[in-house]
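Record type: monomer structure entry
Structure origin: computed from sequence
Chain ID: A
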Amino acid sequence: MNTDAIEFFFHRYGLTLKDIDDLLAIALARGGDYADLYFEYRVANSVHLEEHIVKSATKSIAQGVGVRVIMGDKTGYAYTDEIAFDAIEKACSTASHIARSGKGIQNLGVNATPNVHNLYPVEAPVSSAELIQKIELMNKGDVAARGRRQDALHRGGAQALRRRAGQPRKAPRDVGARAGDRGVG
């Protein structure tokens, strides 16, 4: 489990380990065998660059908490896009109600131990960069891509570009029988 993610949600939304314990207890209150909370916070950025000019820039955020409660072969699931204790509590009750049974409450602790083997650490995610930095990155990519296009033109790629532009291809040399000569139609 990534402690950075846990700290992110705790800091940004004011949740605590006790809150998580309480929410899981609510989810299991109707007799669930297992419950989990899935926190989501996803940022998507888009910068549209055309002819070295930024035509548009957008940013969207998808966030929420999914609650799953399992009781035997039954699963209850609920989701809220509001990351607040009251909203998550309602989702926990809903998921618990769906997977309802007559068992008692089972308390679970949250294991917040760090992931010792982090194979892909991200020190500065692109989503945290300022818009001007993203535009600079797009401009560098545009310049690099245009440079590769010029390289392709010089190495014979011009024929392929002409074909895409609708210019006719040179006729191929006669290399033997044509398809019509072989009875293939």
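Annotation 1: Confidence is low (pLDDT under 50) at residues 102-110, 174-185.
Annotation 2: The longest strand covers residues 53-71.
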